[in-house]
Specification:
Homodimer. This protein is of the alpha/beta class. It has one domain (7-238): Aldolase class I (TIM Barrel). It has helices spanning 20-28, 40-46, 49-56, 71-83, 97-113, 132-139, 145-158, 168-177, 205-211, 220-223, 228-238; strands at 11-14, 35-39, 60-67, 88-92, 120-124, 163-165, 183-186, 215-218. Strands 1-2-3-4-5-6-7-8 form an 8-stranded parallel beta barrel, surrounded by 7 helices. The mean pLDDT is 93.
């Protein structure tokens, strides 16, 4: 069977819980790694220069800061974020259509000013740490979790951005409503037998791809492994 995609291009490795030195040591062990995720922890620790350092090592960067503020602030933040060269940038869908539109317009402007292609903005729907029961009890939202995800994905699409972040459990329904090239990027990925940690809505890598995920965010299964290269290659092999 000939694959229509490169397994390594479907995986985004979350660089969480590490120092800068540990990040670069890990990357050296993963020559096939294409995508990395820079989240709040690493960005706060090392600042925007970490993105340049990763890109200098040939990596594509998913900047996962989940911007959520008034439209003007979101626009200014995404304008600066786009100048770093990150290929993917997250905003919270709950910021609303106007905020998402301002973020997208400003990101395009920021990238253009430094001669870079515009990043893809992705709207976070409902965090994968939320379960259905907690979602209703703690937030008091009188919608099912699935309904909320669909509402926010529709909002993201109507705002003209390139995709959204959702759990793999919602992907199949969303993919019917939002065909490619709309991106559906999914955390909450665990191979069979792996610890689910603080995730609630999870799938295996192959299940998520088959359901319609564009890319999968993986992390501790690789970063906490005694042999990260073997762990990464094992996940890739599950997609073949």
């Amino acid at each position: 069977m000939t694959l229509s995609f490169k397994p390594e291009d479907k995986l985004i490795l979350a660089l969480d819980g590490m120092s800068g030195a540990e990040v670069f040591m890990l990357i050296e062990k993963l020559p096939n790694l294409i995508w990395v995720k820079v989240g709040l922890e690493l960005f706060t620790l090392l600042g925007p220069q970490i993105i340049n350092q990763l890109r200098d090592r040939g990596k594509k960067v998913f900047l996962d800061l989940k911007f959520h503020d008034i439209p003007t602030t979101m626009g200014r933040a995404c304008y600066q974020a786009a100048k770093t060269g990150a290929e993917l940038i997250t905003v919270h869908a709950c910021a609303g259509k106007k905020g998402i539109e301002e973020a997208n317009k400003s990101a395009v402007k920021g990238a253009k000013e430094v001669g870079l292609p515009p990043p893809s903005l992705l709207a976070v729907t409902v965090l994968t740490s939320w379960g259905s029961k907690d979602f209703v009890q703690e937030l008091g939202i009188q919608q099912s979790l699935d309904q909320r995800v669909s509402l926010l994905a529709n909002l993201a699409s109507s705002a003209g951005i390139q995709g959204c972040i959702c759990s793999p459990l919602e992907v199949m329904k969303l993919r019917k409503d939002f065909p490619e090239p709309f991106q559906l990027i999914t955390p909450g990925i665990r191979s069979c037998g792996e610890n689910i940690n603080d995730q609630n809505r999870i799938m295996t890598p192959l299940e998520a791809i088959d359901a319609g995920s564009s890319k999968l965010v993986i992390g501790r299964e690789v970063t906490s492994s005694e042999n990260p290269s073997d762990a990464f290659n094992r996940i890739c092999s599950q997609l073949i």
